[in-house]
Write a structure and sequence with these properties.
CATH superfamily of the largest domain in chain A: MetI-like
CATH architecture of the largest domain in chain B: 3-Layer(aba) Sandwich
Radius of gyration of chain B: 25 Å
Order of helices and strands of chain A: HHHHHHHHHHHHH
Structural class of chain B: alpha/beta
Distance between the termini of chain B: 68 Å
Structural class of chain A: mainly alpha
CATH topology of the largest domain in chain A: MetI-like fold
CATH architecture of the largest domain in chain A: Orthogonal Bundle
Helix content of chain A: 55-70%
Largest sheet of chain B: 6 strands, mixed
CATH class of the largest domain in chain A: Mainly Alpha
Number of strands of chain B: 13
Oligomer: heterotrimer
Largest interface: A-C, 117 and 114 residues
Number of helices of chain A: 13
Strand content of chain A: under 5%
Number of strands of chain A: 0
Shape of chain B: globular
Strand content of chain B: 5-15%
Chain lengths: ~290, ~450, ~300
């Protein structure tokens, strides 16, 4: 099976096999899907209930218990005291810039690695591969020194830059893997047409690469959205803080306001879930055309 | 390459520049402010003399009265001193520790930060990161507001480096209702206490609560046992080379501590309960006794068991020790960065802050266990009977010991904390516990 | 063979922005960090160069180190072992469900919840029955009282309880990746196979598995990275306890650097972690290189 499928050139249809026939396999599968649905979705319901409980009810740790009276005050606390809107704005800002940065930088490099005729492509790839598994926390102290010297401590740049840097390896890994599968005839004909390398990149390769870019977006998002260690170390100003600060602000030395944390998390997850479900079709469909032969 | 190329190059470069500029866009006036604190001073149209003081603290919870109290003092100060902005960087305790250590490594300590007393702040002092506060504490009579001797825990070589927010003692809270139900009395010796545990257990009442996931909780209690079997200063004697952890007083303490655990004093799965979850058992009336620092008073007062709770001093062990010697817990303290660009202003602010601290704390009912003398009629201000009892106990204090990690170096302290936590999941020979401690100490000297 | 011949300047323009940022903020710091591993340093004051002494202590005298390595590697093995199961479920989904997107999206949700809340949730599940723990209560209710365990506080069990939470949380994440991989395999390949008589499981064996290998590799790599870096969940649920029974390389590193204030030693552990990562990267790439060659 060595056909190299131009990933964008085909529009694969979801194969429907075995539909309509109710065999044992199908029934068993549906039971499995149902069980999984419950175990994976229940936390959301649990979180919703949790966010309406009082601290004592939460700490009592009873799994099935409902709140005696819904504590809407948790939500007021989260919004007012937890600076929800300001932090949400900052989180969206930081995450968006990070995603754009990762996509742009990583796709440039991936394009170069996978399509250019040059000696050092594999070497550059290797350099990125090595960094893929380095934990962010291990670089906390050196980063602090670097940022102090270039004077960007306590700015959004001080978290956006490392976020981008740490996400690029996996992004390059996925994107270059994908781009390698695009048939060379495409740019051959483009070159014949007189298109320059930037036009090939921008008009031909990038549009085709939307699906794996979606994957990169999701991975980046997951890794950044709840990141707290770097953010809490490099950001000091109230005006610049992100959502995880809000969650952690309800943790004091000798007390934790769990209800408000729950409410804050509901509010923090809500926009994400809404966007996700609105885009779910697009995301999966986008990824459908996606990264085979990575 | 054709024209398109050049245009695209420009566009690319532009996009990159834009996205980087956007990163910086939110930061207001960046230059010229002080260490690590360059944000958002847009108010006042960017007056040149405006200075910003960064105040790193561990009171992030807006629903906690202490947070409101700090904001109030800060607001008042800012009002009185136009041109000075206090930027609060409020973090939870764990994160603040990591942040400060990272900052310390690159000498980026914020103007005001929080440290723990004695051994825990020594590395910072040794690295000359903090400014001496001797002159500052003399101003406006601030020094005299502090209790006798408390500042010693924050002084090195006759220089004072930090001002504490609290001074607490270890004691046992107990639920009178549950004691009555089981027909037990307040124990006066440790042996009675173990018996009380058994009696409570027999009646199906959870005898004690503890949040041992946090490890210092068990250590705090254990150290009180050791304070009884040895008298004060055991760890110092170890440091001075006069004793080792193989000392009989230490093994005796381990044995006594284990007898309490083995009697079933603590809840099932104690090592997965964090501080709050553990305390909550007591606060919801599910456990009869709770050993903790007196800072817990406020929280218990606002819980559902308020009014049913009494306190007693940690009893003697095998007839040894003096009940008026307590586990002492001088609180976390405010220190000023030696590299602060606005050293004088920062000192002035902290002076103001500490002068107002007790008064404001008194008002939000947080004045039990302050490091400063508090004027005011507690009873009339509505403090509970239990709070009054706790306050009374402070008057009996005749010395005692600091927590393990305030006396020993961090490496040994971690070894100790693990070793004690282990006792909650399995019974150990006391000699083996001694050995664990000694080897942790030897390898961290 | 790549066809685009471009000037050095163009290459630089494509590669340098990303490479510079990456080298400066990932590579340089980790090398600095590795150098710190040769110091005796509390992270604050003076430091002394001690050569490989930290590594010697780590390999021979640190009772916590090797167990934490073992647990971390076990974690990685479990995480990677989950992927074939996930792939199988993805195949079932693809075969039996007409509009699978809702299911896939729902399965994905736990990953976007903060670890703080995941930790809280699973604590209420794992707690002792007397403290309202759901799992033990259910076991008791269905007459399996003898199966109840101190899930998070029995040193011999606690780690497995944590693995399970991680597997649960990352299930949907990998499912999304695998599912999209399968969906991507063009229908005409299966049509052709059907004519040759390969259908159902047979088709999956001969088409889905081999064609999905690259996606499978992505998941494996992500699972591996995830488990080596796993930190938050352990911190939230057990803090590495009881008595180090759930310490991983990452939590051990954190404890040493920031709690025991042996930053030099912590950095040595970090250096070791990076080394493990390197070796693993090569092994994974090597294995998949062979597998891919075999099938393509």
């Amino acid at each position: 099976m060595s056909q190299s499928i131009g990933a964008g050139a085909i529009k694969p249809q979801a194969r429907v096999r075995g539909k309509g026939r109710w065999g044992i396999g199908k029934i068993a599968s549906y039971i499995l899907f149902g069980v999984l649905l419950v175990t994976q979705l229940y936390p959301l319901l649990w979180l919703a209930i949790y966010s309406l409980k009082s601290n004592e009810e939460i700490l009592a740790g009873r799994f099935f218990a409902l709140p005696a009276s819904p504590q809407w005050v948790n939500f007021t606390n989260a919004v007012e005291s937890g600076n929800y809107f300001k932090y949400l704005y900052n989180s969206l800002f930081v995450t968006t810039i990070t995603m754009v940065g990762v996509l742009l930088l990583a796709s440039l490099v991936s394009f170069a690695i996978s399509r250019f005729r040059w000696k050092y492509g594999p070497a550059v790839m290797l350099v990125f591969l090595i960094g893929m598994m380095i934990p962010m926390q291990a670089t906390l102290l050196p980063l602090m020194l670097i940022f102090k010297n270039i004077n960007i401590l306590n700015t959004h740049a001080s978290i956006i830059l490392p976020y981008i840097a740490f996400q690029t390896p996996i992004a390059v890994f996925i994107l270059s893997g994908f781009m390698r599968t695009i048939p060379h005839e495409i740019e051959e004909s483009a070159v014949v047409d007189g298109a320059g390398v930037f036009r090939i990149f921008w008009n031909i390769i990038l549009p085709v690469s939307v699906p794996p870019m979606m994957t990169v977006c999701i991975l980046t998002f997951i890794n950044i959205w709840n990141e707290y260690i770097l953010a809490s170390t490099f950001i000091s100003s109230e005006a610049l803080k992100t959502l995880p600060f809000g969650v952690n602000s309800f943790v004091s030395q000798y007390s934790v306001n769990y209800g408000a944390i729950g409410a804050f998390l509901v509010l923090g997850a809500l926009p994400v879930i809404i966007i996700y479900f609105l885009l779910a079709d697009k995301i999966t469909k986008g990824m459908v055309a996606g990264a085979v032969k990575g | 390459m054709n024209k398109m190329n050049g245009i695209l190059k420009v566009v690319m470069a532009g996009t990159l520049a834009l996205s980087l500029a956007a990163c910086g866009a939110n930061n207001g006036n960046n230059e010229g402010t002080n260490t690590g604190t360059n944000a958002g001073t847009d108010n006042g149209g960017g007056k040149k003399e405006d200075i910003t003081i960064t105040f790193q603290n561990i009171y992030p919870d807006p629903t906690d009265p202490k947070n409101g109290m700090i904001k109030k003092i800060v607001a008042q100060y800012e009002k009185d001193h136009p041109g000075v902005k206090i930027e609060l960087d409020s973090l939870n305790t764990d994160q603040q520790k990591v942040k400060l250590k990272t900052q310390a490594a690159s000498r980026e300590v914020p103007d005001i930060t929080i440290v723990n007393p004695a051994a825990q702040m020594k590395p910072f002092v040794d690295a000359k990161l903090f400014a001496p506060l001797n002159d500052m504490v003399a101003e406006n009579g601030l020094k005299d507001t502090f209790q006798e001797g408390i500042l010693d825990f924050y002084s090195f070589d006759d220089n004072l480096y930090a001002l504490p927010d609290g001074n607490n003692i270890g004691l046992v809270y107990y639920n009178k209702e549950l004691f009555d139900q089981a027909g037990v009395k307040v124990p006066t010796t440790f042996e009675e206490m173990v018996q009380v545990v058994k009696d409570l257990k027999a009646k199906g009442i959870q005898p004690m609560a503890i949040g041992e996931k946090d490890t210092w909780t068990g250590s705090f209690l254990f150290m009180n046992v050791l304070l009884r079997t040895n008298g004060p200063g055991f760890l110092q004697e170890v440091i001075d080379g006069k004793k080792t952890f193989e000392d009989p007083a230490f093994t005796e303490a381990v044995d006594a501590f284990q007898s309490l655990i083995q009697a079933g004093a603590f809840q099932e799965g104690a090592t997965s309960f964090d501080y709050n979850a553990g305390e909550n058992l007591f606060k919801t009336g599910k456990a009869a006794m709770y050993y903790m620092g007196s800072w817990a008073t406020g929280g218990i007062e606002t819980s559902s068991v308020n009014g049913k709770v009494g306190v007693f001093k940690f009893p003697t062990v095998n007839g040894k020790g003096d009940v008026n010697e307590f586990m002492l817990a001088p609180g976390s303290a405010f220190a000023i960065s030696a590299d602060s660009k606005h050293l004088e202003e920062t000192k002035d602010f902290l002076n103001y802050f500490m002068l107002n601290f007790p008064k404001e704390a008194f008002e939000v009912k947080g004045a039990v266990g302050l490091a400063q003398k508090v004027e005011g009629d507690f009873k009339a201000a509505g403090y509970s009977d239990m709070a009054m009892e706790v306050l009374g106990m402070f008057k009996d204090v005749k010395g005692g010991d600091l927590a393990f990690d305030n006396t020993m170096n961090p490496g040994t302290a971690q070894g100790h904390l693990t070793s004690i936590q282990n006792l909650f999941v399995q019974k150990m020979e006391s000699a083996k516990v001694s050995k664990e401690h000694q080897s942790a100490y030897d390898s961290n000297k | 063979m790549n066809v685009l011949k471009v000037s050095k300047f163009t290459i630089a323009l494509f590669v340098l922005p990303c490479l510079l940022l990456y080298v400066l903020l990932v590579f340089v710091p980790i090398i600095v960090s590795m150098y710190s591993g040769l110091l005796e340093w509390n992270g604050i004051g003076e430091s002394t160069f001690v050569g490989l002494a930290n590594f010697k202590t780590m390999f021979f005298d640190d009772a916590v180190f090797w167990p934490s390595v073992r647990r971390t590697l076990m974690f990685a093995v479990f995480s990677m072992a989950e992927i074939p199961v996930v792939l199988f479920i993805a195949i079932l989904l693809n075969r039996y469900v007409k509009k699978p997107n809702f299911l896939v999206s729902s399965y994905f949700l736990p990953i976007i919840l903060s670890v703080v809340i995941i930790g809280q949730l699973w604590k209420t599940i794992y707690n002792p029955a007397s403290m309202g723990g759901m799992l033990n209560q259910v076991l008791e209710a269905i007459g399996l009282g003898s199966w109840t365990q101190a899930w998070l506080t029995d040193p011999s069990i606690a780690m497995y309880s944590l693995y399970f939470v991680a597997l649960w949380q990352y299930f949907g994440y990998h499912l999304l990746i695998q599912f999209t991989g399968i969906q991507n395999i063009p229908a005409d390949v299966y049509e052709a196979a059907k004519i040759d008589g390969a259908d159902g499981l047979k088709a999956d064996w001969y088409i889905t598995f081999p064609m999905n290998i690259p996606i499978f590799k992505i998941s494996i790599v992500l699972a591996f990275i995830g488990s080596l870096q796993a930190f938050d969940l352990t911190m939230v649920m057990t803090g590495g306890g009881p008595a180090h029974a759930t310490d991983l390389i990452s939590t051990h590193m954190y404890n040493m650097s920031f709690l025991s204030m042996k930053y030099g030693y912590g950095s040595a552990i970090a250096a070791f972690l990076v080394l493990v990562c390197l070796v693993a990267t090569f092994i994974i790439n090597f294995i998949f290189g062979r597998v891919e060659r075999k099938y393509t």
